[in-house]
Please model this.
Amino acid sequence: MRVERMTNEKFKIFLTFDDLMDRGLSREELWSDLPRVHRIFSDMMYEAGVELGVELSGVLLVQVYLLQAQGMLVVVTKTEPADIEEDEDYLEMKVTLDESKEMMFSFADFEDVIQAGRKLYHLKVSGGSVYYYNEDYYMLLEDEDIFHLDQDQVIAVLSEFASATAATSHRLIEYGKQIMDKDACETIDKYFS
Model:
């Protein structure tokens, strides 16, 4: 579990699927076993508060984003309810779940992007976009790029050459440099075969 402060009132937590499994929670259980999920989230909030050195009380707005291959990004915002007396032990979480329809991987070297793109193209994946940001390359695959494949198969191929990342497409579009748009795997196969 990785915790990062965004502002005084907001922080984010990134958990890989391995982190979730270590906590005894699968991706599917996030949608079904709500009491257990609530307990696990309470424990995570406590751990994050200790790590950041903040006392978490009152109402927390918790936005959970399930990332296809990477795990889970949790954005927590502390709010101060006007109608509740100051009670240090009071903690209420308002949780919203959202699932991302994209898969993002980070590559240290462009040669790895080429190898992954060629392998994916041979699996009939022609789409994808490639970005450069903070000394790394990123490949973004949308659901429609890989709909015909098993998601675990795509993750396995990309994991040979890259690492799952918590970077979002919004950050890459805003701050990164786009190298290839939409048909990255086809372009890679055409120019680098």
